[in-house]
Amino acid sequence: MRFLLTITLVGLLICSARVALGLPFFDSLPKYTISIDKNDNKMLVQWLQDELNKLRKTSSVLKAYTDPKDIARYERGTLQKLLRSRGYYNAQVRESLEAGKIYYRISPDQIYRIKAISVFMPDHLQQGFSGVESKVGDPLDAKKVIADIATIKKYLNTHTCLFNIDVKYEAIIINNEYSARLVYRVPPSPEVNLGKLRLEGLTTVNKDYLHNKLKLKPGDCFNRNKIDTARLNLLQTNLVTVDKVNISTPYHGVVDITFMLKERKHRTISWGIGFTSDEGAGVSAGWEHRNIFHHGEKLKIETKIYHLNQSLKSELSVPNFFRDDQSFTTTAEISKEERESYDSRAATIDGTVSRSLSKHRIASIGSELKFSKIKEENPTEENPTEENLIETSSSDENFQLLSFPLGFKIDTTDKLLDARRGATAAIEIKPYFNLSKKNTNFVKNTLVLTGYLTAAKLRYTPTLAVRVKVGVISGINTVDIPADERFYAGGAGSVRGYGYQDLGPTRRAAGSSTGLEVIGGRALSELSLEGRFRFTKNWGGVIFLDGGNAYADPKPRFDSTLRWGAGIGIRYITTFAPLRLDLAMPLESRTGLKDQKVHIYVSLGQAF
Question: What is the pTM of this model?
Answer without folding.
Answer: 0.72
